[in-house]
Amino acid sequence: MISLTDSQKIGMGLTGFGVFFLFFGMMLFFDKALLAIGNVLFVSGLSFVIGLERTFRFFFQRHKVKATSFFLGGVLVVLIGWPIIGIVLELYGFFLLFRGFFPVAVGFIRRVPVLGSLLSLPGIRTLVDKIGESNNMV
Questions:
Q1: Residue 115: what pLDDT?
Q2: Contact status, residue 99 vs residue 63, Cβ threshold 8 Å
Q3: What is the dihedral of CA 61, 64, 69, 72, to 10 degrees?
Q4: Would you call 53 exposed, middle or buried from its count of C-beta atoms within 10 A (0-12, 13-18, 19+)?
Q5: What is the pLDDT of residue 134?
Q6: How far apart are alpha carbons 136 and 17 in whole angstroms?
Q7: Which of 26, 30, 50, 74 has the greatest number of CB atoms lying within 10 Å of its CB?
Q8: pLDDT (0 to 100) of residue 42
């Protein structure tokens, strides 16, 4: 069992609520208030989970400047009041930030019994193979 500190537990809760508000905001036709709340909760929860210093080191690496600018720019655009454009920018930045993690996630999901068989379907397999093999999705 992984032991978490109290601040990490708070961060997990904030991140979870942030993802919930983001999902719920998109389900309600890009409600800008819910998306703004979700963005603030997600980013603050992430900083609680991994710490402020590691959060800054993750986002502000030299090779992740483009990804960070798209992600944080999308957050800013949502806060300004243009939710659809902001979410598109955020998603692009998110995929650029976490593209090194996708092959690991695909490898893990392929080992899960039901999900692994779904990823083996003909139409989905080519896309998953492309995501799972490359580290430089552009």
A1: 87
A2: no
A3: -80
A4: exposed
A5: 58
A6: 30
A7: 74
A8: 94
Q: Pinpoint the alpha helices (H) of the chain.
A: 6-27, 32-50, 52-59, 65-80, 83-97, 102-111, 113-119, 122-133
Cβ(131)–Cβ(95) under 8 Å? no
**Token duo for residue 5:** 């500190």
Position 136 scores a pLDDT of: 53
The residue assigned the tokens 């392929």 is 110
**Nearest-angstrom CA–CA distance, 119 and 50:** 31
**Would the CA dihedral through 57, 34, 109, 50 be positive or negative?**
positive
Cα angle value 24/28/31 (rounded, 5°)? 90
Q: Chain-centre distance of CA 97, in angstroms?
A: 8
Q: Which amino acid is at 118?
A: L
Percent of the chain at pLDDT above 70? 96
Which among 13, 118, 22, 8 has a CA at the least distance from the CA of 75? 22
What is the rounded end-to-end Cα distance, in angstroms, of the chain?
37
